Fold:
Amino acid sequence: MKTLILYRSYYGNTKQVAEAIAQQINTLGHQSSIQDIRLRFPDLQGVDAIIVGAPTRMGRVTRKAKSVLRHLKRKGHTDKPVAVFDTIAILPSTPEEMEKVKKWFSPGAVGIMQNVARDQGLNLFSETLRCEVTGMKGPLAENAIGKAIAFATAFISFAQRR
Structure:
């Protein structure tokens, strides 16, 4: 199985998550490739599954990330398994703190991409991945790569059943 991972990264954190996902997919005996979504959309011939990732910035996702998901429908790839992930600032630890800053995190890039994928009728993996970043520019939180590895494993299992 070949998986294409498309991502947008400003400070390298989302790219690191994409690379960890790709490495785990390869470790599981499958093929993967990664590409920045700002580059020309790749040919999907031979691609069996797609993962799209972007950072949450000010509660939003980049237009390009949404457009990639819409492009999949326009090109007739609604049957390919699709997953989404984001990177995000460390979430507050208490419900009170979260309520104060909720507009910056919820639904965030991952929630918006999930909604776009559903609206496009894509074969969406129900699990999402949110990797926290310490500070504005990083680095990734301690558990982020471990979460990416677990996510990749779960997604490949989902994709193989499709």
Notes: The longest helix spans residues 144-161. The chain has a mean pLDDT of 95. The first strand starts at residue 2 and ends at 7.
